[in-house]
Write a structure and sequence with these properties.
Structural class: alpha+beta
Number of helices: 4
CATH topology of the largest domain: TATA-Binding Protein
Largest sheet: 6 strands, antiparallel
Strand content: 15-25%
CATH architecture of the largest domain: 2-Layer Sandwich
Number of domains: 2
C-alpha cells in the first residue's frame, strides 16, 4: 500500500453521455441538509463538469468522515470520462496545511535566534535548540501519518457512482 495522505486518484468511464450523467446525479444526490439523518451520498454539480460528493449531512465537520470525491466529467467518445481524487475531509486539509507552514516558520525562527550572551554550554544549547525545532515538524509529520493510517477509501461513494452511471474502472496510463 502506497503512502497517500492526500487521497488517491479515481478514473471511471461511463457509456452514458455527460448530459445523462448529470441528470442521473442530480436526481440521486441529496443536497445540503435535506434529510440529515440519512447517510447517503450528497453532492453538488458546479458548472457543467465539476462534481463534489460527500457522505452524510454533517460530513464537512465530522472528524471521522469518509473522503470527499472531487471529480470532473468530460465527454469521451460516446460516453463520459470521470476523473478526480478522493481526498480526506476538508477539515483535515484546512488544519494540516497551516500547521505545516507554521511548523516550518517557527522552526526557522528558532534556528535563526541568537542570544545576546554566549550560552554556558554551547553543545547543550544546540541540542536543545534542535529538539525544540524538531517538535513542531514531528507533530505535523505525525498528523500526516495518522491521515494515512486512518484513511478511508471512499468506496461507498465510488460504488454509488458506478451503480448510478453504469461506470467501470479505467486504469490510468501511469499505473498500467
Amino acid at each position: 500500500m502506497t503512502f497517500r495522505p492526500f487521497g488517491f486518484p479515481i478514473s471511471l468511464y461511463s457509456p452514458l453521455p455527460p448530459d445523462e450523467c448529470r441528470r442521473r446525479l442530480r436526481t440521486k444526490l441529496l443536497t445540503g441538509f435535506e434529510r440529515p439523518a440519512a447517510l447517503r451520498p450528497r453532492g453538488k454539480l458546479i458548472g457543467q463538469s465539476f462534481l463534489v460528493i460527500w457522505l452524510g449531512a454533517y460530513d464537512w465537520i465530522n472528524k471521522e468522515s469518509e473522503p470527499k470525491l472531487i471529480l470532473r466529467l468530460r465527454k469521451d467518445g460516446t460516453g463520459t470520462s470521470i476523473k478526480g481524487r478522493a481526498i480526506p475531509g476538508i477539515q483535515f486539509l484546512l488544519f494540516l496545511i497551516p500547521a505545516a507552514l507554521f511548523a516550518i516558520w517557527g522552526s526557522t525562527k528558532i534556528m535563526a535566534y541568537r542570544p545576546d550572551h554566549a550560552p554556558a554550554d554551547p553543545m547543550t544549547y544546540l541540542i536543545v535548540k534542535f529538539i525544540i525545532c524538531a517538535l513542531p515538524l514531528a507533530f505535523v509529520a505525525s498528523l500526516w501519518l495518522v491521515a494515512h493510517w486512518q484513511s478511508k477509501t471512499g468506496r461507498p461513494m465510488i460504488s454509488f457512482l458506478k451503480r448510478t452511471l453504469a461506470a467501470r474502472d479505467v486504469t490510468p496510463p501511469s499505473l498500467a
